[in-house]
From TrEMBL:
InterPro entries: SEO_C, SEO_N, SEOA. It comes from Vitis vinifera. This is Protein SIEVE ELEMENT OCCLUSION B. It holds the Pfam family SEO_C. Residues 451-681 form the Sieve element occlusion C-terminal domain. Signal peptide: none annotated. Residues 24-307 form the Sieve element occlusion N-terminal domain. GO terms for biological process: phloem development.
Length: 683
């Protein structure tokens, strides 16, 4: 490497290093910047002026290589510009600011070489706008540069259509510049990068200044830091203004084969962009977080306080009414919606005077991408719902929506499964999740209070009519007729075929009328659907009508468990809870199961293998049928063949924080082990 090249590279590094400052130099520079700030209390709305500046940059900056075709100004842009800037008072404000803008324009028009000269020129500009707030200082500086930048590109745009512009273009060496468009592209891109960085910072600071005073409190470090760093951000933005003006001056003075942008200048501009973006990060504290916090606190106070009615919490149509907030994401299932719709419509028919309304509040979490398909799914859900719905989903990016989502998750324990929050007529929270009550007792659970839930459990007995609760009208008719009814489930079609065949033979031998109904599994997917087809084709038994009915049968049982746990009941002391757990353990096993009952008598149940064995051994206990009755004789024999060792298991969905630390086995009373299961909804 030659000594000349070494010297040139050293000069580049020295020039680039001028943009770096030590901590002490930073403090000295900040003091110098703040010394220029002498506000006189007069302020003006900077938004119309900033918008005008953005329009100039947008219309003037070429989108591709510098050609006349790429520089057309669109009519609709002009119309939009006139709408935004011809506001009352803006023209008079602009007239008052014209002198200051012109002074700054003249100051930055001269060619700058960077380093200390650029710093001094930026300080000079700050002195010219010393009486203005920091956001106005920057917007005025950008306006001054926009004048120079706009004039430069206006000549290009009018070159072919206006004789005056053509003459001016010749003086400004436009043909020479156009002839070097490919060489100049890096320089145009550099200016474009600087302009984008300046506008980003300007918009950030303007938004900061527009925050209501309650969002900016000097005792909070984040806001104090943001306020303290605004001056340095404005300074670096004005340094960018000076750098851009320098590049425009170079273009106008371009001669011969002079290279338009040296490597050292490219480094300096790159460093400026980095510096201004870093300065933007300091004042661009997350004001949205502050809004979320304020809105969250407001919600806390709102729901802690009782009101004369719930109009503060809801809208006028809900005055003196219980409001049920259905909160879910867009994945709320067809089954859930269909059953809830049926309950709601039945309530309107059966109890037209009932004073509650349902409102759907859909939530879109940050982890859920919002796509066109999301909008369609949301609209489809809304279209089918017979109750009130929010006009659009709650989405985390919005500060206010984010506060509501945070509140719902923290205070009402919303996860990803639907919940039904009940608000009383005075806006108070009556129940954080009444969905379990709704599934079990439908509108009989109204007004969905804890005391009402306790009363309903006192009235309930573990009988077949409570277990099926009208899900299948045929079963209700058979119960009333005193028939022996068998419910059975599982997904093993071979067991189903063996069980139904031998059950029919035993019923015939015993001379009883037996009605069998297949109730599938709690996750009724393809296998259950296939089993139903086989059951129909082979005429094995009846079945619950549709997969939704099967889903509802099992979700009611699961809801019973959650309801009991919410009321503080335990397996050791609550016989009904023991029965619920047995049913759930049947559902979670890989084998079949069955239960029999007659009218309002107690239920007899067992796992699949035990039931098959018992039925196959009918000849051993048929002698007791005459004396004890069929069901009692069956039950006694089941107890005799009960396996000495058994294992129950079941899965619980983590809902509203109601998973107990310990549970005991419903049969042997031992403490059950707890495992974590991760399962996709499609399994």
């Amino acid at each position: 490497m030659s000594s000349e090249q070494t010297s040139e590279n050293m000069q580049k590094l020295i020039k680039f290093d001028r943009l770096k400052f030590s901590a002490s130099e930073d403090n000295m520079m900040l003091k110098q910047i703040e010394a220029t700030h002498e506000p006189d209390g007069r302020e003006f709305d900077v938004n119309p002026l900033l918008h005008l500046v953005e329009q100039i940059f947008t219309c003037a900056t070429p989108k591709s290589d510098v050609t006349f075709d790429s520089l057309d100004l669109k009519t609709n842009d002009v119309e939009a510009l006139e709408d935004k800037t011809h506001q009352a008072g803006f023209i008079s404000t602009l007239e008052a600011l014209a002198y200051t803008i012109d002074r700054i324009s003249c100051e930055i028009r001269c060619k700058c070489s960077g380093g200390e000269e650029a710093h001094q020129r930026a300080i000079s500009v700050l002195n010219m706008v010393s009486s203005h707030p920091w956001d106005a200082k920057l917007v005025l500086s950008l306006s001054a540069f926009a004048v120079n930048y706009g004039e430069f590109w206006l000549v290009f745009q009018s070159y072919n259509s206006n004789d005056l512009a053509k003459s001016m273009a010749i003086l400004k060496q436009v043909p020479e510049i156009l002839g070097r468009s490919s060489m100049l592209k890096p320089q145009f891109n550099s200016i474009k990068d600087l302009i984008k960085a300046m506008l980003d910072v300007a918009n950030c600071i303007v938004k900061f200044r527009e925050l209501p005073s309650q969002y900016i409190t000097t005792d909070e470090s984040a806001f104090s830091t943001a306020l303290a760093n605004i001056p340095i951000a404005v300074y670096w933005a004005i340094r960018c203004v000076v750098a851009c003006a320098s590049q425009i001056a170079r273009l106008k003075g371009l001669q011969g084969d002079e290279h338009p942008l040296s490597t050292s200048e490219a480094w300096e501009i790159s460093a400026l962009v980095h510096k201004i973006l870093m300065s933007k990060k300091k004042p661009s504290f997350d004001a949205d977080d502050k809004r979320r916090m304020e809105a969250y606190q407001m919600l806390l106070e709102l729901f802690k306080t009782s009101h004369s009615d719930n109009m503060k919490v809801d809208i006028d149509v809900f005055k003196d009414t219980h409001v049920l907030l259905l909160i879910s994401n867009l994945d709320i299932s067809h089954d859930e919606l269909e059953v809830l719709e049926d309950i709601y419509r039945e309530s309107l028919k059966k109890r037209p005077g009932i004073q509650y309304e349902i409102v759907w509040l859909p939530i879109i979490d940050q982890s859920d991408p919002w796509m066109e398909s999301s909008q369609k799914l949301f609209e489809n859900h809304r279209a089918r719902m017979p109750w009130y719905t929010r006009h659009d989903p709650l989405r985390s990016p919005s500060p206010e929506d984010g506060a509501v989502i945070t509140f719902i998750k923290k205070e009402w324990h919303y996860g990803r499964k639907p919940i039904l929050v009940v608000l009383g007529p005075r806006g108070q929270v009556v129940c954080q999740n009444a969905l379990h009550m709704m599934w079990i007792w439908k509108d009989e659970a109204f007004p969905f209070t804890t005391s009402r839930e306790e009363d309903l459990w006192k009235e309930a007995t573990w009988k077949l009519d409570f277990l099926v609760d009208g899900i299948d009208p045929r079963i209700s008719e058979w119960i009333a007729a005193g028939k022996i009814i068998c419910l059975y489930g599982g997904d093993d079609i071979e067991w189903i075929q063996r069980f139904t065949t031998i059950a029919k033979k035993v019923a015939e031998s015993a001379g009883i009328s037996l009605e069998m109904v297949y109730v599938g599994k709690s996750n009724p997917k393809e296998l259950v659907y296939t089993n139903i087809k086989t059951i129909i084709e082979d005429k094995l038994s009846h079945h619950l009508k549709g997969l939704t009915s099967i889903w509802y049968f099992w979700v009611r049982i699961e809801s019973m468990l959650y309801s009991k746990m919410r009321l503080g009941q335990t397996v050791e002391k609550d016989p009904t809870m023991q029965e619920i757990l047995k049913m759930l353990s049947f559902d979670n096993s890989h084998e079949g199961w069955a239960l029999l009952s007659k009218g309002s008598e107690e239920i007899t149940k067992a796992k699949g293998d035990s039931f098959l064995t018992c039925l196959r051994q009918y000849n051993q206990w048929e002698v007791h049928v005459q004396k004890k009755g069929f069901l009692q004789a069956l039950k006694d024999h089941l107890l005799q063949i009960h396996p000495p060792h058994h294992c129950n298991q079941f899965e619980l969905l983590v809902a509203a924080g109601m998973i107990p630390e310990t549970l005991v086995c419903s049969e042997c009373g031992r403490k059950m082990e707890k495992f974590f299961v991760y399962r996709c909804c499609d399994v």
